[in-house]
């Protein structure tokens, strides 16, 4: 939603130094970071546009949280599956560290009040999802895992005296001092613009699905945190690596012209439900192959004029509503009864593997700025995230970042109140920074950077998205995504170039704000961007 034009000129209603840390975003990553900080004695202020947990990807998560808890399982096997799924770009050390932390993450969520599905003896029920070699998916209320862990984290955060939640606040820019250290944020709230200064700022703003025409994400997940970080000087790694979920419900959310599609979790296929064409014949040989493989298979069938369905009546039948109540409700809202009707599906933008470059402590490469959750690139997901590894990562990484902040930015501000603030976005109005991508930009990006990509389409989209990207955060992220996709002249994981079908050397791409300015300086139309293509670093 665009702000009214006068918003940027409204008088600042508040300018204050908050003790401890500022956390931007109240999905699972932001809430877990706040709790981990508060439990270490660091005061926290959480900023979020609506009530905490609402409008987040976290609350929509269905399948669950991956953790090697079964008698036949081990974190090493979980790490191995994570590395295998990631198409050569997973950092093995990160995979080992986070999968080893997974059983503790489940226990931590239980301590915060989450209840997971278990048998009569209290043993957790473990589901199976694509590309996992073992049953290791911890879930709640069948397919309501995200709602349950978010509910618990919100309640725990509200109950903690060290956490202050300021709802209705939208962060529009990061503030840096003369040494390029992040020292606070500028934000807008119901009463007007405000400036909040703190010893540490943590971005936990989620993913980028809202940049695409079809997505399972809330439409406000369009990469605002990436833009904030980029404008403060941070680098983004593998921006082009977007996972398309193969089975979004091929009907929009009820009553909404939003374009957000309900997800039909992989756990449904894990229960043996096949993907079929309209005549009932199998759509794919292995419906539990990696997400990228299944998404391409479904996309190819749709492109060939077929329709693709999950055949729930033939397999789960009336068990569907017991095992998957959330999905059943979404289908019913779209006029389908999954016990009797096959569920029509299509791929949709789902998860961003790329993100702000962070180290093992969640530090970005800008001092004073940490990033946690989907906005960050830890190295866990490579070119293709393994199912149910992101809620896990959000909580595990929250602990790592909180420990680092507690050690280096204690509750009493470790730095003197900043002087000589350099507002990194001083030339950009708050109006532009709060923009949501237009429907035409979303269509353009999906056409060029969807399940299948090619150089000419990416180049044409980049040329159009470049216009106005200086003053429009969503365009900035969409434009740089096309630049990164042009640089990756190969096919790997979720990034498939029809003009470069083979994998090249396994390497990351990086973009920063300089890539916007480089293109602007070309001066001879957009063709000069071709010179930048192929320079993956
Ligand atoms: C339908 C669906 C199903 C999924 N199922 C699973 C699953 O089963 N298992 C799994 O592991 N993963 C799953 N995922 C992925 C997982 O849910 C997300 O990766 C994860 O929840 C991201 O958490 P987050 O806290 O980083 O972001 P989010 O939960 O999206 O929270 C982001 C927060 O940042 C706020 N924010 C954004 N911009 C600003 C700003 N400028 N100022 C202030 N606040 C801002 C938002 O309002 C929100 O509060 C699923 C995702 C979807 C969409």
UniProtKB/TrEMBL annotation:
Matching Gene3D superfamilies: FAD/NAD(P)-binding domain, Fumarate reductase/succinate dehydrogenase flavoprotein-like, C-terminal domain, Succinate dehydrogenase/fumarate reductase flavoprotein, catalytic domain
Pathway where it operates: Cofactor biosynthesis; NAD(+) biosynthesis; iminoaspartate from L-aspartate (oxidase route): step 1/1
Job description of the protein: Catalyzes the oxidation of L-aspartate to iminoaspartate, the first step in the de novo biosynthesis of NAD(+).
Keyword Oxidoreductase: yes
Domain FAD-dependent oxidoreductase 2 FAD-binding: 21-391
Chemical reaction(s) catalysed: L-aspartate + O2 = iminosuccinate + H2O2
One Pfam family of this chain: FAD_binding_2
Protein name: L-aspartate oxidase
Ranges where the Fumarate reductase/succinate dehydrogenase flavoprotein-like C-terminal domain occurs: 467-504
Family matches, as SUPFAM superfamilies: FAD/NAD(P)-binding domain (SSF51905), Succinate dehydrogenase/fumarate reductase flavoprotein C-terminal domain (SSF46977), Succinate dehydrogenase/fumarate reductase flavoprotein, catalytic domain (SSF56425)
GO molecular function: L-aspartate oxidase activity; steroid dehydrogenase activity, acting on the CH-CH group of donors
One of the GO BP terms on file: 'de novo' NAD+ biosynthetic process from L-aspartate
Xref: InterPro entries: FAD-dep_OxRdtase_2_FAD-bd (IPR003953), FAD/NAD-bd_sf (IPR036188), Fum_R/Succ_DH_flav-like_C_sf (IPR037099), Fum_Rdtase/Succ_DH_flav-like_C (IPR015939), NadB (IPR005288), Succ_DH/fumarate_Rdtase_cat_sf (IPR027477)
Cofactor(s), names only, from the UniProt record: FAD
Native source species: Kineosphaera limosa NBRC 100340
Keyword terms: FAD, Flavoprotein, Oxidoreductase, Pyridine nucleotide biosynthesis
Enzyme class: oxidoreductase
EC number(s) from the headed UniProt entry: 1.4.3.16
Family, per entry: Belongs to the FAD-dependent oxidoreductase 2 family. NadB subfamily.
């Amino acid at each position: 939603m665009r702000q009214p034009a006068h918003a940027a000129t409204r008088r600042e209603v508040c300018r204050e130094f908050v003790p401890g840390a500022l956390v931007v975003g109240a999905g699972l990553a932001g809430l877990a970071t706040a709790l981990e900080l508060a439990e270490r004695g660091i005061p926290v202020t959480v900023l979020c546009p609506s009530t905490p947990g609402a409008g987040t990807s976290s609350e929509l998560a269905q399948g669950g949280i991956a953790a090697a808890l079964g008698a036949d399982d081990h974190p090493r096997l979980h790490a191995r599956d994570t590395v295998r799924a990631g198409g050569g770009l997973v950092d093995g050390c990160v995979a080992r560290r986070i999968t080893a932390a997974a059983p503790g993450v489940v226990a931590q969520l239980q301590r915060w009040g989450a209840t997971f599905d278990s048998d009569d003896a209290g043993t957790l029920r473990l589901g199976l999802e694509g590309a996992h070699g073992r049953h290791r998916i911890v879930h709640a209320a069948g397919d309501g895992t995200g709602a349950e862990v978010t509910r618990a984290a919100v309640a725990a955060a509200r109950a903690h005296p060290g956490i202050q939640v300021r709802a209705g606040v939208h962060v529009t820019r990061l503030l840096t001092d003369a040494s390029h250290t992040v020292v606070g944020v500028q934000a807008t709230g119901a009463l007007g613009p405000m400036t909040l200064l703190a010893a540490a700022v943590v971005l936990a703003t989620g993913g980028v699905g809202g940049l695409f025409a079809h997505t399972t994400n809330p439409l406000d997940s369009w990469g605002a945190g990436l833009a904030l970080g980029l404008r403060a000087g941070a680098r983004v790694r593998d921006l082009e690596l977007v996972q398309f979920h193969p089975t979004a419900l091929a009907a929009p959310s009820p009553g909404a012209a939003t374009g957000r599609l309900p997800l039909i979790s992989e756990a449904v296929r894990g229960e043996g439900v096949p993907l079929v064409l309209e005549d009932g014949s199998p759509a794919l040989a292995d419906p539990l192959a990696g997400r990228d493989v299944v998404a391409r298979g479904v996309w190819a069938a749709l492109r060939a004029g077929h329709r693709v369905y999950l055949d729930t009546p033939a397999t789960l039948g009336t068990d569907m509503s017991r095992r998957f109540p959330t999905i059943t409700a979404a289908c019913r809202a779209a006029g389908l009864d999954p016990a009797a009707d096959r569920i029509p599906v299509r791929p949709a933008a789902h998860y961003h593997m790329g993100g702000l470059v962070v180290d093992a402590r969640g530090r970005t490469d800008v001092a004073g700025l940490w990033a946690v959750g989907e906005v960050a690139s830890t190295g866990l997901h490579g070119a293709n995230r393994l199912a149910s590894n992101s809620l896990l990562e959000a909580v595990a990484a929250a602990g790592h970042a909180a420990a680092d902040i507690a050690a280096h930015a204690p509750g009493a501000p470790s730095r003197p109140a900043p002087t000589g603030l350099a507002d990194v976005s001083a030339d950009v109005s708050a109006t532009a920074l709060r923009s949501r991508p237009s429907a035409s930009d979303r269509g353009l990006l999906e056409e060029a950077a969807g399940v299948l990509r090619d150089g000419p389409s990416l180049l044409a989209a980049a040329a159009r998205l470049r216009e106005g990207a200086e003053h429009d955060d969503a365009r900035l992220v969409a434009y740089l995504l096309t630049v990164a996709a042009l640089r990756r002249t190969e096919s790997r994981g979720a990034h498939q170039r029809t003009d470069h079908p083979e994998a090249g050397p396994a390497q990351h791409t990086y973009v920063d704000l300089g890539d916007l300015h480089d293109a602007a300086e070309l001066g001879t139309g957009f063709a000069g961007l071709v010179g930048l293509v192929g320079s993956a670093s």
